[in-house]
Design brief:
Layout (H helix, E strand, L loop, with lengths): L3 H5 L3 H6 L9 H13 L6 H29 L10 E3 L2 H11 L1 H14 L3 H27 L12 H20 L6 E3 L3 H16 L9 H4 L3
Parallel strand pairs: 1-2
Helix pairs in contact: 3-4, 5-6, 5-8, 6-7, 6-8, 7-8
């Protein structure tokens, strides 16, 4: 939000800069500067008024285009088009990563990258899944030992916090390494179901104590 009182402290010469083409000020600031100059007796010709309004409109359109572009970056382009490539859905990977950890999530996302011939991101994703598993294993007990869990509610436990961080990082990997605006079909859920079942069995049994830092295990605490 533009602070009109701040702009009122500027000189006429400084306010004139707001009306020049190519300035970096937001459209609201340009409008306020224009109004203040008029209040101070600055006379604008019809041509100058038109130029100012066009500048404001241009800035508004540029802002809207920027917002739309940012939305498109994070938008999921899943489709029913039979010609589109088949990938494991983004939301599915996020949910699996949140509940079951980054290992199954990184496997699914890494396989997506391999299908898209993004071998570097695939390797990075596989490595991240394994490294984050180790980080999670030590981070959650550390938070409990240092009584950091006292600041968390039931729904915001350390296990959930760390799990959400891993899922979010994989989500960012998808956005960064998947081609922009790529339409894709949802691949079969059979493999995600199998890997999720195996991971769930390991978590429930807490195999050798490896998964004590996982969100699902925290329910039994």
């Amino acid at each position: 939000m533009v602070n009109r009182s701040v702009l009122r402290k500027l000189s006429n010469q400084e306010l004139e800069v707001y009306l020049q083409e190519g300035n970096r000020f937001v459209p609201e600031a340009v409008q306020v500067a224009f109004e203040i100059l008029q209040e101070r007796g600055r006379i604008f010709s019809e041509q100058e008024k038109t130029a100012v309004q066009q500048l404001i409109q241009y800035k508004k359109e540029a802002e809207e285009a920027k917002i739309n572009a940012e939305k498109e970056i994070w938008q999921d382009y899943i489709t029913e088009d039979p010609n589109a490539v088949k990938l494991f859905p983004r939301e599915l990977i996020f949910i699996i990563s949140l509940l079951l950890g980054t290992i199954p999530g990184s496997i699914l996302l890494g396989l997506n990258f391999i299908k898209l011939k993004k071998y570097g991101p695939a390797i990075l994703t596989f490595i991240f899944g394994c490294i984050f598993f180790t980080v999670q294993y030590f981070a959650v007990p550390f938070m409990y030992r240092n009584n950091i869990q006292r600041v968390f509610t039931y729904r915001k436990s350390p296990e959930l916090l760390i799990g959400a961080a891993g899922a979010l990082i994989l989500f960012v990997f998808w956005v960064l390494f998947t081609p922009k605006k790529l339409p894709y079909r949802a691949a079969s859920y059979i493999f995600p179901g199998i890997i999720s079942f195996i991971m769930l069995a390991l978590i429930v049994t807490n195999y050798q104590g490896w998964f004590s830092s996982y969100f699902l295990v925290s329910f039994a605490k």
